[in-house]
Design goal:
This protein has helices spanning 8-16, 88-98, 155-164, 172-182, 255-260, and strands at residues 49-52, 55-59, 72-76, 79-82, 115-120, 123-128, 240-246, 275-278, 297-300, 309-310, 314-315. By secondary structure, it is of the alpha+beta class. The structure holds calcium ion (2 copies). One calcium ion (CA) binds at residues 200-202, 212, 214, 216, 282. One calcium ion binds next to loops.
Length: 321
């Protein structure tokens, strides 16, 4: 079974056919408010980033999902990485400072017009007017969601934010290395109830029933779940995160494939290119996706945002002295 998030084929097909699916959507009701760990500064933090010491990582899984094969050894130099996903408040500061307009807010008619991919009770739909400011479309907003990860940002949007901040998007190797080093599971073995959940995922049978046992039906505030051993929050779960790495349907793709598709190859639409997104999201359930692992990787059309994709930034600079 492909783990590509449900409905992206539908969205892509609809866009390719010029048929814009309009849908009404509303924010899911939250279960009883969960206790958040919060974003208090941690030792060694610098401007919201923690130092990831360099080392070796085995990329991918064998056996594992086809796109995670073959595994290979990579050396990753030390780097700085945001402790948590970029929040709506942080993205708002960027927009206020620069006047930046996201791709969702200016999608051309041939791509459906302004809008973005929203997961609703009836599945995925391209919702006109959806954007980071209106995550569920017209009538919705981000008031009260300031600490939640920004969503509906495209690869260009995330890259623009990173550049403004003097940073970059992490590579897939940096992301997977940090995820493996800090914690390799979204669940605490042997724990019961919410303590079992170290990441915001989906409990129940996707897409029919979401029990919200981990405290959240939709996104959780960034840094709500406890940090891993490196001080990173939500490196698994909550929202998928953009990397700078072009996607191919396997590790170590043949050189001729890379030469033909230098911007990545999306198996569903070879013409669009694709970047790797990592970490899984609140929509990943045991019965679908299940990509809340360090090795998980998915393709994403670079110019299409979604309600379960955000990002964090990295900095390739000397470590703490
Ligand atoms: Ca959840
Ligand atoms: Ca995440």
């Amino acid at each position: 079974m492909s783990g590509r998030p449900l409905g992206f084929r539908i969205v892509s097909a609809a866009l390719a056919a010029g048929a814009l699916m309009q849908a009404s959507a509303c924010a899911p009701a939250l279960p009883e408010a969960a206790q958040c760990v919060g974003m208090a500064p941690v030792a060694g933090e610098r401007d919201g980033m923690v130092w990831i010491p360099g080392g070796a990582v085995t990329m991918g899984e064998s056996p594992g999902h086809p796109e995670e094969r073959p595994n290979y050894q990579a050396q990753v130099a030390g780097f700085w990485l945001d402790r948590h996903e970029v929040t709506n408040a942080q993205f708002a500061a960027f927009v206020q400072a620069t006047g930046y307009v996201t791709e969702a807010e200016r999608q051309p008619p041939e791509k459906g017009g302004p809008g973005s991919a929203v997961f609703t009770n009836s599945g995925w739909a391209y919702v006109g007017g959806a954007s980071w400011r209106r995550p569920y479309g017209p009538g919705s907003g981000i008031e009260g969601l300031e600490d939640h990860p920004v969503v509906h940002v495209t690869y260009a949007d995330a890259s623009a934010y990173a550049q403004w901040a003097g940073r970059v998007l992490p590579t897939e190797e940096q992301y997977e290395y940090a995820a493996r080093l800090g914690r390799d599971s979204a669940f605490a073995a042997g724990a019961q109830g919410r303590a079992r959940y170290r990441a915001n995922t989906w409990q129940g049978v996707f897409p029919f029933r979401n029990s919200g046992e981990d405290g959240f039906l939709g996104t959780a505030p960034a840094a709500c779940f406890e940090a891993d051993e490196l001080g990173l929050h939500d490196i698994l779960g909550n929202v998928w995160e953009w990397t700078s790495t072009p996607y191919y349907p396997r590790h170590q793709p043949p050189a001729d494939l890379v030469a033909r598709f230098p911007d990545g190859l999306n198996p569903t639409d070879a013409s669009t290119g694709a970047r790797v997104i990592k970490g899984g999201s609140y929509l990943c359930a045991d019965n679908f996706c299940a990509r809340y692992t360090p090795s998980a990787r998915q393709p994403q059309e670079p110019d299409l945002g979604a309600s379960h994709i955000g990002f964090r930034t990295a900095l390739n600079a000397p470590g703490p002295s």
